[in-house]
Design brief:
- By secondary structure, this protein is of the alpha/beta class.
- About 60% of the residues lie in helices and about 10% in strands.
- The protein has 51 helices and 19 strands.
- It has a six-stranded mixed sheet with strand order 5-6-7-3-8-9, sandwiched between helices. It has a six-stranded mixed sheet with strand order 15-16-17-12-18-19. The protein has a four-stranded antiparallel sheet with strand order 11-10-13-14, with helices on one face.
- Strand 13 (about 1315-1320) and strand 14 form a beta hairpin.
- Helix 21 runs parallel beside helix 42 (about 1195-1235) and helix 39 packs antiparallel against helix 41 (about 1140-1185).
Length: about 1500
C-alpha cells in the first residue's frame, strides 16, 4: 500500500494515540475512497438478477430522474477531471503516485455505473432504490474524513497546497451529498401499474426505501387510528402477490406435485410387490408407500422467503455480539485514566449505530417472516376449502364440518404463531438438548387437549343445533353436565402442561445464570492470580444475556413446534382424503335419443360399505318425464346422487347428456338475498326470472317478505318456511334452463294445493319444463298417471320400469303399492288427495344429502314465518351478519357467522335483514373487563404474583450489584481472598430468582385455570338458559366462536401473555433503576425518552387494537361461508359452480387479510420506534459513563451499560404484550357479553311446584290469550279463548301464517304471554318453573333432532326407564326390527345429527321418546310430513292406541290424518275462525270445508 501512495498508509500516532486524531493522506486517497466502489460492484450481480425477475412496468422520465442522471454524469466528469489533471502533471514532469491514477479511474467508472443503474431501475419500475441510497450514503460518510482533514491542514499550513484537487474534492462532496438527498425521494408509480385503478392502494407498494426501512409508510394509518376508530373502508387493498388466488394457487401446485410423486412412488412399490412375491429371497422387505408430504409442499412454496429471512436473522445475530465487545473496550477505557476522551465518545456512538442496525435488520426479518406466515395461512385455508368441495361422502363422514373448520381456524393459525420463533431452530441449537425431555411430555398433552377441544366444540355445536329440542324436553341439565365433564378434562390437561411449563421456565431462567456462575467460579478458582475484573465479568454477563433471549423463547418455540406438528399431520391427513372421481359420469358420449343411461351400474357410498344400488340398467329418453318410486330406503335419492357422480361407482357406466339442475330433498339455501339464491351466479334475465317465480308460486311470498326478492335469507334459510325453501330451490333449477332436471322429492315439503300447482306449472307435461328431461323422485300417487315412464326401485335394484297403464296391468310390486294406498271405491279421489310425502332415505343416502330437515324452522315451524307480524321484527334488526350456512346440512352443525352482507338496494337493507351485525367494540378495552378477569382469577392470586415478581427483580439486581462490588475489588491492588463467600452469595441470589419465577408462574397458572373455569361456566349456564328467540336471531357460528376461539384465548393465550408482560415490565423498571442509580446524569434524558415512548405507545395501541377487532370480525364469515359450502357441496357441484365458490371464499379471506397485513406492519412500526428509544438509552448510558469517567468505578459502568443493553428488547416486548393483552382480553369481553344476555324464566320455582301427578285430566284452556314474538311487534295470537277437555283429540289447521306453531310454542312457554293465561288442569302455567311444565308435556317436533350419542341416551338421557320400557317403546314405534338388527342394540351410536338414520327413522325415534314420557298432553307438530304413507299409518295407529286417554293436539298438513279427531280448530290470522267436529265443519261450508275440498276429502 505504501508503494501505491508513495507515503505511509497507517500511522497509529496520528490516528489513535492522540487527542486530535486524523487519517494519513494515503489511507484517505486509497481505501477510504474505494469502499463505496467496492460495495456497489459487489452487490451488482445479485441486484441485476433481482431487477430482471421483478419487472413492474417502466417509469416515465421525470424531472427527478433527469436530475439524478445529470448528477451522476457530473460526478463522472469530476472524477475524470482529477485523472486528466494527474496525466497533465505527468506530461509536465510532475511525478504523481499511482494512487492518483487508480482512484479517479475507479471512482469515475463506478459513478458511470451508478448513472446507468438509475436509468435501468427506471425501466424496470423501481420507485426507490435501496442499493443506491446505501451507495450515496457510503460516499458521503467516507468523504467526511478528508473534508475535515483538508480544512485542518490548510489552517495549519496557512495555505492550500493543491488547489485543483482541493476544489474538485469539495465539488465532489457537494454533488454526492445532493445525490444522497435526491435518492431519498421516490419516483412516480410505473406505467400500467395496478395503482392507477385501485381506489385505496397500499402505500407500502410505492414507499421509498427509507420509508420501508423505518416502516414510515404505516404512520398515516397509525395517526388515523389514533384520531378515530378505524373502519373497514380505511383499510388498504392487498398487494397483488398477497391476494388469495395467487397464494393458494402456488401452494396447490406444489401439493399436486407431491401427490403425483407419491403416486409414482406407490406405482413403483406396487410393481416391486409383484417382484417380491416371485422372488422373496432377493427383496427382503417391501418399501413403504410414501404419503404426499404437506411439509415439503410448504417448503417448496416458501423456500425463498425462508432463505431471505434467514439472511436477515443471521446478520442481526452477528450484530448482537458486537455490543458486548464494545462494552469490553469501554470498561478498559474507563479503567485507563490516560486514554483520550474521544475514544469514549466513539465507543458510545458505535454502540448506538450497532444497536440501530440490529433494530432495522430484526424488523425486516420479522416483517418477512410474518408476511410469509400470513400467506401460508391464506394458502392453507384456500387449499382446505378447495379440498372440501371434492371429497367423497365417505371422507366427509370421517371429518365433521366442525373439525374441518378447526383445521382452517386453529391449525392454520398455528403456523402463524410458529413463524417468528422458527429461526431459533438454528439460532439456538445449544439449548435444544435440554428441551427434548419436555418436548415429548408436552406433545402427548397437546394431542390429548386437541381431542378434548374437538369433542367439546362438537357437542356445543350439537347443543346449539338442537337447542329447541332440549328446551321442549327440558333436557338442558344433562347436556350441561356432559359439557362440563369434557371441560374438566380439558382444564386438567391445561393445568398439567402449565406445571411442566413452569418447571421449564425455572430451568430456562436458571440455565444462563448457572452458566455465568460456573464460568466465573471456575475462572477464579483455577488460579489464585486470576482476578475477576469488571471487563471479564460484565462482558460475560452481557453475552449470557444474549443467550437468555433464545433460551426464553425456546419453551415457546417448542410448544409451538409441537402444536404445529400436530396441525401439520391433521392437515396432511385431510388433504390426502379420497376425492370424487370427476370422470365417473360420462358427459360426452351417449346413445342417440337418450338423456340418461345407466348400464349395469353398482354404486356405494363408501368403499367399506355394501353397495347401495346394484345392477342398475336404466334408459331415460330425451325430454321424458320420469318418476322414481318405491318404499322407504330403497335407494331413490341414492339413484339421483349416482347420476350426479356423488357416489362411488364400483362397476358399470353412467352417461348423462347436457347440463344438470338438481333440487335436493332438503333445500339448500344460501345466506344471501332471495334473488341471489335463485340466480345462483347467473346473469339476471328479467322475463326468465319472472317466469321462474310465477311457476314456483313465489310471487305471493314476495309480497309478504319485507324486502321482496331483495330480502336477505338468514343462516340455513331461517326466515323461510320449509315449503318456501323448497320452492326457492326449485326456482333455482327452473331459472338455470339446464337440459336435465333431477328433482329429489321437492313436493313433499309443500301443502297439497301448492304441490298440485307446482306439478302443473313446472314439472308436469304442461309445465315450464315440458320438453326437458325430468327425473322426479316422489311418493305422491296422484301425479303418476301423467308420467311418461315410471321406475320402481326395491332394495337398491330396479324392480319394474314402464308407463303407468302398463305397470298397473302387470300387477307386480307397483300395482300392489297402489292398491295398498288407494282402496278401490275411491281410488281416484284418494289419488288426488294423497299428500305429497317427504321421502325418507336409507342410512347411507342421508349422508349425501348431508342431512335433512331444516334444523331451524325458527319461531314458526314449518309455516312460513308470519310475515305480517315479522315485518317489523325484521325492520328492527339491523344487518344480517352471519354469512350463514346452507340449509341442507347436518342438522346440528350451525357454524360461525358474523359478517356484513351488502344487500343490493340500500333501502331494502333496513327491512330485508334479520340478524344483527356483530358489533366491533370501539375504543379502549374497558377497565371493567380487566377487573372481571382479575375477579375470575382471584384477588389474592394477583397480589401474590406481583409480589413474587418484585422479589425476583430485586434478587436479580442484588446478584448483579454484588458482582459489581466484587469486580471493583480487582482495581484495588490486593488479591481477592474471599472468593467462596462472593460466589456463594451470588449463587444464592441467582437461584432465589429462579425459584421465585417458578412459584409466580405456578400461582398465575392456577389463577388462570380458575378464571378459565369460571368464565366458561358462566357462559355455558347462561346460554343453556337463554330464550329460544336468542338462538333464532343469533347465528350459531357467533355463539360457537365464543366457545371455541374466545375460550381458547382465555385458556391458553392470556396467562402466558400476562406472564411475559410482567416479566418485561419488571425488567424494564429494574434496568432503568440500575442505570439511573449508577449514572445519575441519566435521569435528565429519562423524561423526554419516556414521553416519546408513551406517545408511540398511545398511537400504536389505538390502531392495533382496532385492526385486531376488525380482523376477528372479518374472520367469522370465512368459516360460515365454508360450512355453508360443505353442506351444499352436492348442489354446487351439480350446477358446476365450484370455481365461483372458490373465488367467493378467496374474497372473504382477502377481506380478512386487509386487516391482518396492517396489523403486522403496526407491530414493526412500533418496534422500530420503541427500539430507537432503547438504543438511545444504550447511547446515553455509555455517553454519561464517558463524561463521568472520573467518578465511576469500572464495575458500576459495566453494571449500568450491561443493563442498558437489555432494555431495548424489554421495552418492545412490554408494548407488544400490553397490546396483545388488550387484543386478547377482548375474548373476556366477548365471553362476558354472552354470559349476561337475558335468560328465560327459572327452570324450577321452589315455592310453587305443581302437585305430583299433575296434570291428571289433561285439560288445556287458553283464556283471552295473546302473544307476540318480541316486545314492540304485532300480536301473533290475538285474544285466543278456547278449552280442550282432557282426553280430546284436536286437530289444528290453518293457512300459512295463521299461528298454528305459535300456539304449541306458547303451551311450552317458548313464547311468553303478552296478556291472558294458559291453564292446564286449572293451574296457570306461568306460575310454575319451566322444567316442571315442559317435563309434563310431550311433543313430537317437526324436525326430528338426534344427538351424536347412543340410541339409549337419545331416548332417555336421564336414565329414568328400564331396558324393557325402552324395547317396548321401540316396538310400538316400529323400530324394534331395525334396532335389534344392529350389533350394538340400544347402544347403537347415532352420528352427528342422526345422519346414519333416515329421516323417517329419526321421526320414529322421536315417537319412541314420546311413548316413554307418556304424559297426559301430547303435541304433534306436523310430525309426519317427512314420512311415507305406510309409516304414517303406523304412527297414527300407535298414537290412537297408546295415547287413548290423553289430550292430543295435532298440527296437520295432511287433513286425512285428523278427519276422525274429536274436534278441529281452524286458526286464521291468530284468532279462532272455526272450532267444531270435522263433520259439522264440512257441513258448515267454511274455511275447513275449502281446505278439505282442495285436498279432495269433501
Amino acid at each position: 500500500m505504501d508503494a501505491l501512495c508513495g507515503s505511509k498508509f497507517w500511522d497509529a500516532n496520528l490516528s489513535v494515540h492522540t487527542d486530535n486524531p486524523d487519517l494519513t493522506p494515503c489511507f484517505q486517497n486509497s481505501l477510504l475512497a474505494w469502499v463505496p466502489c467496492i460495495y456497489l460492484w459487489a452487490v451488482l450481480p445479485c441486484y441485476l438478477f433481482y431487477l430482471r425477475q421483478c419487472h413492474r412496468g417502466y417509469i416515465i422520465l421525470s424531472h427527478l430522474s433527469r436530475l439524478k442522471t445529470a448528477l451522476g454524469v457530473l460526478l463522472w466528469c469530476v472524477s475524470w477531471a482529477d485523472l486528466f489533471y494527474t496525466f497533465h502533471g505527468l506530461i509536465h514532469g510532475q511525478n504523481s503516485a499511482p494512487v492518483f491514477f487508480v482512484t479517479p479511474l475507479l471512482v469515475g467508472v463506478t459513478m458511470l455505473l451508478a448513472t446507468l443503474l438509475i436509468q435501468y431501475e427506471r425501466l424496470q419500475g423501481v420507485q426507490s432504490s435501496g442499493v443506491l441510497i446505501i451507495f450515496w450514503f457510503l460516499c458521503v460518510v467516507c468523504a467526511i474524513v478528508p473534508f475535515r482533514s483538508k480544512i485542518l491542514s490548510a489552517v495549519a499550513k496557512g495555505k492550500i497546497s493543491d488547489l485543483f484537487r482541493f476544489t474538485t474534492f469539495y465539488i465532489y462532496f457537494a454533488l454526492v451529498l445532493f445525490a444522497l438527498i435526491l435518492s431519498c425521494f421516490r419516483e412516480k408509480p410505473p406505467f400500467f401499474s395496478p395503482k392507477n385503478v385501485d381506489p385505496n392502494p397500499s402505500p407500502e407498494v410505492s414507499a421509498s426505501f427509507l420509508s420501508r426501512l423505518s416502516f414510515w409508510w404505516f404512520t398515516k394509518m397509525a395517526i388515523l387510528g389514533y384520531r378515530r376508530p378505524l373502519e373497514e373502508q380505511d383499510l388498504w387493498s392487498l398487494k397483488e402477490e398477497d391476494r388469495s388466488k395467487m397464494v393458494v394457487d402456488r401452494l396447490m401446485e406444489e401439493w399436486k406435485k407431491q401427490q403425483k410423486r407419491a403416486e409414482r412412488h406407490k406405482a413403483a412399490v406396487a410393481s416391486g410387490k409383484r417382484v417380491s412375491s416371485e422372488d422373496v429371497g432377493l427383496l427382503g422387505g417391501r418399501p413403504r408407500p410414501r404419503e404426499p408430504s404437506f411439509l415439503r409442499a410448504v417448503l417448496a412454496t416458501y423456500g425463498s422467503s425462508i432463505f431471505v429471512s434467514i439472511c436477515f436473522k443471521l446478520i442481526q445475530d452477528l450484530l448482537s455480539f458486537v455490543n458486548p465487545q464494545l462494552l469490553s473496550i469501554l470498561i478498559r477505557f474507563i479503567s485507563n485514566p490516560v486514554a483520550p476522551t474521544w475514544w469514549g465518545f466513539l465507543l458510545a456512538g458505535l454502540m448506538f449505530v450497532s444497536s440501530l442496525m440490529q433494530t432495522l435488520f430484526l424488523h425486516q426479518y420479522f416483517q418477512c417472516v410474518f408476511e410469509m406466515a400470513l400467506r401460508l395461512r391464506t394458502a392453507i385455508i384456500g387449499v382446505i376449502y378447495r379440498k372440501a368441495l371434492v371429497i367423497t361422502s365417505a371422507a366427509k363422514r370421517e371429518s365433521t364440518v366442525g373439525e374441518i373448520v378447526n383445521l382452517m381456524s386453529v391449525d392454520a393459525q398455528r403456523f402463524v404463531d410458529l413463524a417468528p420463533f422458527l429461526n431459533l431452530l438454528w439460532s439456538a441449537p445449544l439449548q435444544i438438548i435440554l428441551a427434548i425431555y419436555f418436548l415429548w411430555q408436552m406433545r402427548a398433552l397437546q394431542v390429548e387437549q386437541m381431542k378434548f377441544k374437538d369433542s367439546r366444540i362438537k357437542l356445543m355445536s350439537e347443543i346449539l343445533g338442537g337447542i329447541k329440542v332440549l328446551k321442549l324436553y327440558a333436557w338442558e341439565p344433562i347436556f350441561l353436565e356432559k359439557v362440563e365433564g369434557i371441560r374438566e378434562g380439558e382444564l386438567r390437561i391445561l393445568r398439567q402442561s402449565a406445571y411442566l411449563q413452569a418447571i421449564a421456565t425455572f430451568t430456562w431462567i436458571c440455565t444462563p445464570f448457572l452458566v455465568t456462575l460456573t464460568t466465573l467460579g471456575v475462572f477464579v478458582s483455577l488460579d489464585k492470580n486470576n482476578v475477576l475484573d469488571a471487563e471479564k465479568a460484565f462482558v460475560s454477563v452481557s453475552l449470557f444475556n444474549i443467550l437468555k433471549i433464545p433460551l426464553n423463547m425456546l419453551p415457546q418455540l417448542i410448544s409451538s413446534l409441537i402444536q404445529t406438528s400436530v396441525s401439520l399431520k391433521r392437515i396432511q391427513h385431510f388433504l390426502s382424503q379420497d376425492e370424487l372421481d370427476p370422470h365417473c359420469v360420462e358427459r360426452k358420449i351417449i346413445a342417440p335419443g337418450y338423456a340418461v343411461t345407466v348400464h349395469n351400474g353398482t354404486f356405494t357410498w363408501a368403499q367399506d360399505l355394501p353397495p347401495t344400488l346394484h345392477s342398475l340398467d336404466i334408459q331415460v329418453p330425451k325430454g321424458a318425464l320420469v318418476a322414481v318410486v318405491g318404499p322407504v330406503g330403497c335407494g331413490k335419492s341414492s339413484l339421483v346422487s349416482a347420476l350426479l357422480g356423488e357416489m362411488e361407482k364400483l362397476e358399470g357406466t353412467v352417461c348423462v347428456k347436457g347440463s344438470v339442475a338438481y333440487v335436493p330433498q332438503q333445500a339448500w339455501i344460501q345466506n344471501c338475498t332471495l334473488q341471489e339464491n335463485i340466480l345462483f351466479g347467473r346473469a339476471l334475465d328479467p322475463s326468465r326470472y319472472q317466469r321462474a317465480l310465477e311457476a314456483c308460486a313465489l310471487l305471493a311470498d314476495l309480497e309478504v317478505l319485507p324486502g321482496g326478492d331483495q330480502t336477505e335469507i338468514g343462516e340455513k334459510g331461517i326466515n323461510l318456511s320449509g315449503g318456501q325453501r323448497q320452492r326457492v330451490s326449485l326456482a333455482r333449477a327452473v331459472y338455470s334452463e339446464a337440459d336435465l332436471f333431477l328433482l329429489d322429492d321437492p313436493l313433499s315439503a309443500v301443502d297439497s294445493h301448492v304441490a298440485k300447482h307446482i306439478f302443473d306449472q313446472v314439472i308436469g307435461p304442461e309445465g315450464v319444463l315440458a320438453g326437458k328431461t325430468r327425473v322426479l323422485v316422489t311418493h305422491s300417487i296422484s301425479f303418476l298417471p301423467q308420467m311418461d315412464l315410471i321406475i320402481v326401485l326395491a332394495d337398491g335394484q330396479v324392480s319394474e320400469v314402464g308407463p303407468y297403464p302398463a305397470l298397473l296391468q302387470r300387477s307386480g310390486s307397483f300395482a300392489n303399492f297402489l292398491c295398498n294406498y288407494a282402496p278401490d271405491k275411491d281410488k281416484e279421489n284418494l289419488q288426488e288427495s294423497s299428500k305429497t310425502v317427504l321421502e325418507d332415505t336409507d342410512d347411507e343416502e342421508v349422508l349425501l344429502i348431508e342431512d335433512t330437515l331444516s334444523n331451524h324452522t325458527d319461531l314458526t315451524d314449518n309455516e312460513p314465518v308470519m310475515y305480517e307480524v315479522r315485518k317489523q321484527f325484521m325492520r328492527q334488526l339491523s344487518v344480517m351478519s352471519s354469512e350463514g350456512e346452507g340449509q341442507a346440512r347436518p342438522v346440528l352443525r350451525r357454524r360461525p357467522g358474523s359478517a356484513e352482507k351488502v344487500v343490493q338496494a340500500a333501502e331494502m337493507k333496513a327491512s330485508g335483514t334479520l340478524i344483527q351485525e356483530e358489533k366491533a367494540e370501539i375504543g379502549t378495552v374497558k377497565l371493567s373487563v380487566f377487573w372481571d378477569y382479575a375477579k375470575a382469577m382471584g384477588f389474592y392470586t394477583i397480589v401474590a404474583v406481583c409480589l413474587l415478581y418484585s422479589g425476583q427483580s430485586a434478587a436479580a439486581i442484588g446478584a448483579n450489584v454484588w458482582l459489581s462490588a466484587w469486580t471493583n475489588e480487582a482495581t484495588v491492588e490486593r488479591p481477592q481472598n474471599n472468593t467462596s463467600t462472593r460466589l456463594g452469595v451470588y449463587a444464592a441470589l441467582g437461584i432465589l430468582q429462579g425459584v421465585l419465577v417458578m412459584v409466580s408462574a405456578i400461582t398465575l397458572t392456577v389463577g388462570s385455570v380458575q378464571a378459565a373455569r369460571s368464565l366458561h361456566q358462566a357462559l355455558l349456564h347462561n346460554k343453556m338458559r337463554s330464550p329460544q328467540s336468542f338462538f333464532d336471531t343469533t347465528p350459531s357460528g357467533r355463539i360457537l366462536n365464543r366457545f371455541s376461539k374466545d375460550i381458547y384465548v382465555i385458556d391458553e393465550v392470556l396467562a402466558p401473555t400476562i406472564l411475559m408482560l410482567l416479566n418485561s415490565f419488571y425488567n424494564s423498571i429494574s434496568a432503568l433503576v440500575v442505570v439511573v442509580v449508577s449514572t445519575p446524569l441519566f435521569a435528565v434524558v429519562t423524561l423526554p425518552l419516556a414521553v416519546f415512548y408513551i406517545v408511540v405507545q398511545r398511537f400504536y395501541v389505538a390502531t392495533s387494537r382496532q385492526l385486531k377487532r376488525l380482523e376477528s370480525i372479518s374472520r367469522s364469515p370465512i368459516y360460515s361461508h365454508f360450512s355453508e359450502t360443505v353442506t351444499g357441496s352436492s348442489v354446487i357441484r351439480a350446477y358446476g359452480r365450484s370455481q365461483d365458490f372458490n373465488a367467493i371464499s378467496d374474497a372473504k379471506v382477502d377481506t380478512n387479510l386487509r386487516s391482518s397485513y396492517p396489523f403486522i406492519a403496526s407491530n414493526r412500526w412500533l418496534g422500530v420506534r420503541v427500539e430507537f428509544v432503547g438504543n438511545c438509552v444504550v447511547f446515553f448510558a455509555a455517553l454519561f459513563a464517558v463524561i463521568g469517567r472520573n467518578s465511576l468505578s469500572p464495575g458500576l459502568v459495566g453494571l449500568s451499560v450491561s443493563y442498558a443493553l437489555q432494555i431495548t428488547l424489554t421495552l418492545t416486548w412490554m408494548i407488544r404484550m400490553m397490546s396483545d393483552l388488550e387484543s386478547n382480553i377482548v375474548a373476556v369481553e366477548r365471553v362476558k357479553e354472552y354470559s349476561k344476555t337475558e335468560t328465560e324464566a327459572p327452570w324450577v320455582v321452589e315455592g310453587s311446584r305443581p302437585p305430583t301427578g299433575w296434570p291428571l285430566q289433561g285439560d288445556v284452556e287458553f283464556r283471552n290469550y295473546s302473544v307476540r314474538y318480541r316486545p314492540g311487534l304485532e300480536l301473533v295470537l290475538k285474544n285466543l279463548s278456547l278449552r280442550v277437555r282432557g282426553g280430546e283429540k284436536v286437530g289444528i289447521v290453518g293457512r300459512t301464517g295463521a299461528g298454528k306453531s305459535s300456539m304449541t310454542l306458547c303451551l311450552f312457554r317458548i313464547l311468553e304471554a303478552a296478556e291472558g293465561e294458559i291453564r292446564i288442569d286449572g293451574l296457570n302455567v306461568a306460575d310454575i318453573g319451566l322444567h316442571d311444565l315442559r317435563s309434563q308435556l310431550t311433543i313430537i317436533p317437526q324436525d326430528p333432532i338426534l344427538f351424536s350419542a347412543s340410541l339409549r341416551v337419545n331416548l332417555d338421557p336421564f336414565e329414568y326407564h328400564s331396558e324393557e320400557d325402552l324395547w317396548r317403546a321401540l316396538e310400538l314405534s316400529h323400530l324394534h326390527a331395525f334396532v335389534s338388527s344392529q350389533p350394538e342394540g340400544l347402544d347403537f351410536q347415532c352420528s352427528e345429527g342422526g345422519e346414519n338414520l333416515s329421516v323417517g327413522q329419526r321421526q320414529l325415534v322421536c315417537l319412541a321418546r314420546a311413548l316413554l314420557r307418556k304424559s297426559r298432553i301430547l303435541v304433534l307438530d306436523e310430525a309426519t310430513a317427512a314420512i311415507d304413507l305406510e309409516t304414517d299409518n303406523f304412527i297414527q295407529a300407535t298414537i290412537r292406541t297408546q295415547f287413548e286417554g290423553c289430550t292430543v293436539l295435532t298440527i296437520a298438513h295432511r287433513l286425512n290424518t285428523i278427519m276422525d279427531y274429536t274436534r278441529v280448530l281452524v286458526l286464521d290470522k291468530g284468532t279462532v275462525a272455526e272450532f267444531d267436529s270435522p263433520t259439522n265443519l264440512i257441513a258448515a261450508r267454511g274455511i275447513f270445508y275449502g281446505m278439505a275440498r282442495d285436498a279432495g276429502l269433501a
